[in-house]
Prior knowledge:
With 472 residues, the protein is of the alpha/beta class. Helices cover 50% and strands 15% of the residues.
Amino acid sequence: RCVADFQLSIASVTEDNSSGCLSQDLNLQAQKLAEKLKCDAVVSGISAGPGTVNFTINRELLAKAVLQQVLKEGSEYGVKSELFSTVPRQKAVIEYSSPNIAKKFHMGHLRSTIVGNFIANLKVALGHEVIRINYLGDWGMQFGLLGVGFQRFGSKEKLKSSPLQHLFEVYVQINKAAEDEHVKELAKDFFRKLEEHDEQTLSLWKQFRDLSIEEYIRVYKRLGVHFDEYSGESFYQETSQEVLKMLEDKGLLQKTKKGTGVVDLSEKKDLSSFSTVMRSDGTSLYITRQVVDLAAAIERMNKHQCDTMIYVTDKSQNNHFEHLFHILKLMGYDWAERCQHVSFGLVQGMKTRRGEVVFLEDVLNEVRARVLENMASAKTTKQVEDPVETAEKVGLAALIVQDFRGLLSSDYQFSWDRALQSRGDTGVFLQYTHARLWSLAQMHGSEQLTDCNVACLQEPDAVSVLQHLLRF
Length: 472
């Protein structure tokens, strides 16, 4: 369906734009204004809509202007516009993905990975400098448990051949064994040695971390994702103590009756809103993730001197980041205003044929297998050089486009049938269309066009494509 190229909302220009202005009054004003305006060589049609004046551009001029610009700018079309040329170039630090080490890449981290990567790619395309950071969950009492578990159930051979799968199996076993208080004490002792930088303990933990990153890089390669820095909670254990000292020196750290350390975030300073920065188990005090994240933010800003810091996580962490930015402001860091949390809803209902999916690679392998099946059964599928690689790319597009279809903040129900449809707003159809266009380009040679005949581009479908190109 052909729509107007541009619309003017009467409510945005009328002197009386109060909410009491009746819609029929706006419609009447739109009608009167449309009748007064005249067409010219550029504008071929003016009409009134519901509270709007619609402008249609001369079709031949529209086609020429858009296509000449496309030919002139090539792959940079859309990012060399006058609008973007006035945007100041900035430096952005973007933290996304952030899985927990010694665990296989969980499906829950997929959204953070592809949304964060999308934001980073957009900023790079617009000329901004981007630092991509993967902030790993690589510290905490769970590594005491895993260390003891590996000492009991671990195998160096299995760790080498399938590190994350083996560590996952070990973690399941030691969790069952941890019902025994003696095992819990051993785990605490292991983590204490880790904090004290015991050489043997630290060496095992480092092996877990290095093997995890190697596995993650392999999975990220399948997703077309890369990072400039692999950071982690372990990097900021010492500076976290400095942050606690700063909070204390500024009078922001308060102790509760239970010995817990908190920062009061309430306006009336009555602890009606607070953030916990130290916890007690009755015998020892432990810093919380909030302090570690404060230390990480401060160190990143000192290191990169960036214009903005963006954190990409699911919406369950909204409260955490609201508190994080608030505390930074209380500490006197004005740049906290330039920190942003991009949150998203959760993916629900994602199952493979074997049942509930836990790991991302299960999903990637499943979608590749399903696309291969569809390719084999489709009569229109042409012979391709590498069917598996083709299915991998089409399957990945299916996952990403399904993820981006709805509102970012909303949870959504994953559907294999919807994701793999070959028609509609799907990744499969997107890849099919790209392949078809590439085939047409090859069919007509690689000679660079210098001019084009636009007489054949007047039908509604062609005009709709031109309008989309113009908006891009």
